[in-house]
Each structure stands twice: as C-alpha cells, then as structure tokens.
Amino acid sequence: MKIPRLNWPLWAGFLLSLFAFISYPFVFVWFPVTRDFPWANLLLFAVAASLVLLGIRRAFAHDRPNPKRSKGGGVILTTLSVAVFGFFVFMVFVLARQLPASTGHPQVGQKAPDFSLSDTNGKPVSLASLIATRDEKTQTTPKGVLLIFYRGYW
Amino acid sequence: MAKLEEVGIRPVAISVDSPEELRTLVQQAGYTFPFLSDPKAETIRRYDLLHAGAGIDGHDVARPAEFLVDSSGTVRWVNLTESYWVRARPEQVLEVAKTLE
C-alpha cells in the first residue's frame, strides 16, 4: 500500500486546535451557553488532540517515505497545538479573571452616585436626567436605568 | 436590549472611550441606547470599578460591571463579573425589573 506523504490527521488536528482557539472570541462568546463556560471550545480541543495523537503515531511509523521529515513535522505541529491549547486556557481561565476586587462599589439599597458624562454628541448626561427623562416612544419615565460599565475599545 | 426597553428599563453604557470613538461604535453597531464617555475614569473611580493600566498602552479602563438603578436612584441589583468574557444576561435583569415599580 502506498503511504501518502501528507500526514493529514496531524495537520487537521493542528488546524482544528487553531480554530478551537479563534472561535471562542469570534463565535462562541456571543452565546451565553458557550461563553460562560467554553465547553464547545474544549470539545473542539479534545477532537484536535485525538487527531494530533493519531498524526504523531503516523509520523513515527516505520514505513514513512521520509522518516526524518515526518518525525520533525510531527514534533513541531504537536508542540504548536499544545501551545495553542495552553494559550487558550491562559486567556480564558487566567488572564480574563485578573480583575481588581471592588469593595467600594455602590451596594444594593444604596443611592447610586450621580454623574455627568458626555454622550456621543458631546452633550452632558447625568444619572438624574436619565431617570427623569421621558422615553420618546412611550412618553413615560423609565422604571429603572441599567448602568453597563465596560472596558471600551482601549 | 430591546426587551429591556419594552419593560421600561433604560440601558446606558459607560466606558473610557471618547465621544468620537463611541459615535463610530454606535453607528457601526446600530445601538439605540446612550453611550457615555468617562475619559478620565472619574465616574468609574467613584463606582470603584477602576482596572488600572489594563487598557492598550497601559491606560486605565473600567472592570466590567452592571448596576440596575430604580426611579428613586437606588441600586437594586449589582453584577460584578469574575471574568471579562462573562457578562450579565438580559434575562437576569428582566427578572429584577419585574420587582420595580
């Protein structure tokens, strides 16, 4: 039997591990079910790992046409795949959780500190005005204001 | 977000981005609720949400957090995430919104 030169499980495993990494911030983060715990990505990594394992076995098989190249490629792609997985774990489970503790934030039952900040037209908007301004459509004042603090596009 | 507005909750986004940056963002994403700019992080500091040096170039940003404030200006619900990938879900806010007058 002729052995194909390309070790496809190895390459597929490596490319899948890249996809498993990239798909979190670009795809799965948009759905709370796959975002809060990245199980979909971990599943993809698991499939990628089995492909890489299959690939490395092939790479070290005795009947490869070019054993040196095959083994070298196997080691490099396996290392890269492991690195991608390691970086994913670091990004999701370590880096993203390095948030400073907040002890002085307004607690439930306390008054929210008022503020006056510029909107997109440079016009100052205060919390008091957000609470008191009527909605254009319903002509009623809101029941509540949801303040969403976010990191911004830094 | 539209659901929130239906039940009378006005969402407001706050970050250190400049009004110009926010305008671009709002135009691109088509958001219909206000985006406010806190470039010196004064309000962010007052709410104790400063994440010092965490922005690109090491400038200060806000750590993600959500507060639901009722019509009397009282905080009724707080959500401080443990991970910046994970944010509050609209359903959580809708649940609290039911208890507001």
List keywords for this structure.
heterodimer, A: 154 residues, two-stranded antiparallel sheet, 5 helices, 51% helix, elongated, B: Glutaredoxin
Number of DSSP helical runs of chain B: 4
Mean pLDDT of chain A: 92
Described by the principal axes of the CA atoms, the overall outline of chain B is globular
Q: Report the biggest beta sheet of chain B as strand number plus sense, adding barrel if it closes.
A: 2 strands, parallel
Give me the CATH fold name of chain B.
Answer: Glutaredoxin
Q: Label the structural class of chain B.
A: alpha+beta
Tell me the name of the CATH homologous superfamily of chain B.
Glutaredoxin
Q: How does the helix and strand content of chain A classify structurally?
A: mainly alpha
Number of strands of chain A: 3
Protein described:
The complex is a heterodimer of chains A (154) and B (101). Chain A is mostly helical and 154 residues long. Chain A has a domain at 8-97. Helices cover 51% and strands 8% of the residues of chain A. Chain A has helices spanning 8-26, 32-35, 39-59, 67-94, 127-132, and strands at residues 116-118, 124-126, 144-149. In chain A, strands 1-2 form a two-stranded antiparallel ribbon. In chain A, strand 1 (116-118) and strand 2 (124-126) form a beta hairpin. In chain A, helix 1 (8-26) packs antiparallel against helix 3 (39-59), helix 1 (8-26) runs parallel beside helix 4 and helix 3 (39-59) runs antiparallel to helix 4 (67-94). The termini of chain A are far apart. The model of chain A has no long low-confidence stretch (mean pLDDT 92). By secondary structure, chain B is of the alpha+beta class. Chain B has a single domain (2-97), classed as 3-Layer(aba) Sandwich (Glutaredoxin). Chain B contains four helices and six strands, in the order H-E-H-E-H-E-E-E-E-H. In chain B, the strands form three sheets. Chain B has a two-stranded parallel ribbon with strand order 1-2. In chain B, strand 5 and strand 6 form a beta hairpin. The longest helix of chain B is centred in the N-terminal third of the chain and has 11 residues, at 19-29. Chain B starts with a helix and ends with a helix. The mean pLDDT of chain B is 91. At the A-B interface, helix 5 and strand 3 of A face strand 1, helix 2, strand 2, helix 3 and strand 3 of B.
